[in-house]
Amino acid sequence: MIIMPNNKERSRGSRSWSRRTIRSRVGNEFRRLRLRNMPLRYQLMLLFLLFAIVPSVGLGLLVNWTVERVVERQVEGHTMQLIGKVNEALNSKMENLQNMTYLIAFDPDIDAFMGEKKPPNDDAGINTQNKEGNTATEPNRLYGIKQTLQGFTTLYPEIAGIVLVNGSGDYISNEMYPRAEQSLTGEEWYRKASVNPGIFTVLGQPKERNIATHVRYKDDEIVSVARSVTDETSGRVRGVIMIDLKLRSVSQAARNVTLGKSGYVMVTDAEGRSVYKPEHPLIDHIPAGWFPSGDSGTFTAEAGGGELLFMFQSSTFTGWRTVGVFPARESITEVRQIQFYVVSFVFVVCLFGLSASSWFSRSIAQPIFRLMSYMRRAETGNLRAGRWSDRGDEIGMLGNSFNRMLAQIQALISLNELREQQKRDADMRSLQEHIKPHFLYNTLDTIHWMARKKGVDDVSDMVGALSRLFRIGLSKGKDHIPLHSELEHITSYLQIQQTRYRDRLQYTLIVPEELRELYVLKLLLQPLVENAIYHGIKGRRGPGEIRVEAMVEHDRLLLTVQDDGAGMSKERLAEMERLLEAPLESMEAPWPEMTGKSYGMLNVQARVRLSFGDEYGIVLKSQEGEGTCVTIIHPLMRELPTPQQSDHEERKENE
User: Fold this and answer.
1) HSE on the CB side for 617, CA within 13 Å?
2) What is the average pLDDT value for the chain, to the nearest integer?
């Protein structure tokens, strides 16, 4: 029975198939968009843009941020400096007024007036002492006081008036008078000065006071200061000195100070009331709650339909605040002008970076694409050299190297064909001549037995030793042989040499049985024994002895060949030690003066070091007239090296 899927199952399967297809396509597109899968030209363009545009944009942002902070700090510092100068000027004026009150109080007539209990225009009059020490009537004293006050107002034209009020409510002034017939001791300015005995008090602009000036200054045209005069013994307030200062002297310090294009400086009291402000201020009154705590600071506030920036500095002497007011957008305008230049610079850099990256990527990628086409052509077997321009950069050098590589490949192919032909010819010759070594062994063995049959034992021994010497020397092409085979080889050689030299040569072999199965490089001892015979035993008078010994020390095999022959001089020993320690490259090309003398020893040194490393080799000791001792330091080899080890030794030898 066959069950057919319904329509819902078919639609669900189709939707699942479509989702898998979409995910597969999206995955393929994502992998295609990977950087390493993009063409080289686009990779170079992205890298150039990354290293050119990104740092420029980062530098622009950093400069923008830095400039904005620097401009803000400079504006704030410059404004604070101007405000500080205005503050110092106002403090200087107030200090002059304070000193003036001291000078007024020190006058004897004024001092006497401050201590009176009667009205100054009493008919009886009050006798007082003038400056010359003479007595004077009350009218003369009043005239002297007015003259003193007139001198101060003449010397300081910024003073609008000076009034002296004693504790009885009597007053003296040239320019000022009460508006109503009531005691001036009840005035608020008198009470403020009396609250701080002997302390200079800045009252600010007058408001609804019972005193006026003959010039009829308005309240917003003057600033009042006062100081109470106290009794030195009791500390009682004797009276008050009040001075009205013309506002233009205050505004003179702040009028010429401009902040930016439309900013200005204004002076307020501790409650925020304006002491001085320009004709068209941005704000008429600054509430005291706007000011942060501290003697100076900066704040912003919305006023007059815009955001204003306020910088202020308070005076501890007067209690006034000198405030700098200017629109916040003025500093922003300067910053935006710098931002415009920065953005323009970044735009030019980006435009130049796009053009330069396109040109650089094309100049680098185009010859690489050409090289790729030549490589693909070489893959098909066409080894014809490509055409390259006279570029002297790395791309041109790479193209020239590619052409030389193609030429070398063609030469190697031709050489390989020639060597294959030569190998086939050599194989044919090897098949014809492989019988020669066996023929040599068989011939020497036949001579050996024929000599023994004839009773010529010395000839038989000589031929047998020579046969063993050849057989062990060839060793079927092996590089490593057991130590007992090496000893057998050197024994055969010594037997032949002993037959030649008769009684002049004696030898001793000292090799423990447990060491005879160790493996060593073949033909190590024969060159050393040969040197001992020809340069040691042969050079001395009388018979000599050669001692061959094997031992193990520090997990290393030591093979020693020692003779009691002529030995070496110190100069000759030093020269030999220098040659033995020389690099292997120099050992492979022996010096002309060493040919026939020490080449065998140097050859052994080179073979041992090439096979096992520089920590192995020959150690030479000799003394003239006493003999020479040559020690071969050889690794312990209880098994034949594996083919991998042999390949490694072959690679070291090739290096």
Assistant:
1) 20
2) 76
Other Cβ atoms within 10 Å of 92 Cβ, number: 11
At 648, the pLDDT band (50, 70, 90 cuts) reads very low
What is the model's pTM? 0.43
pLDDT at 120 over 60: no
Which residues does 421 contact at the CB level (< 8 Å), separation at least 6?
none
Q: How far apart are CA 260 and CA 226, in angstroms?
A: 37
User: For residue 607, which of 630, 577, 587 has the smallest C-alpha distance?
Assistant: 587
* Sign, Cα dihedral of 49, 51, 54, 59: negative
- Dist CA 285 CA 325 (whole Å): 12
What's residue 333's pLDDT? Answer: 61
Q: Tell me the helices (H) and strands (E) count for the chain, helix number first.
A: 16, 21
Cα separation values, 567 from 539, 558, 572, 622, Å: 9, 21, 10, 6
* Residue 297: partners with Cβ closer than 8 Å, 6 or more residues away: 291, 311, 312
Half-sphere exposure of 133 (CA within 13 A, CB side): 0
Token pair for 508:
């001793």
pLDDT higher for 647 or 145? 145
Q: Distance between CA 317 and CA 87 in Å, rounded? A: 10
Match 């942060």 to its residue by tokens: 292
User: Alpha-carbon distance 454 to 339, whole Å?
Assistant: 119
Write out pLDDT tens, residues 469-496: 666 655 555 678 899 988 988 888 888 7
Cα angle 257-262-266, degrees, rounded to a multiple of 5: 50
Tokens of 173: 């002034």
Other CB atoms within a 10 A radius of the CB of residue 337 amount to: 11
Q: Which residues pair with 562 in a beta bridge?
A: 547, 629
List the structure tokens of 652: 């070291």
Measured distance CA(525)–CA(488) in Å, rounded: 11
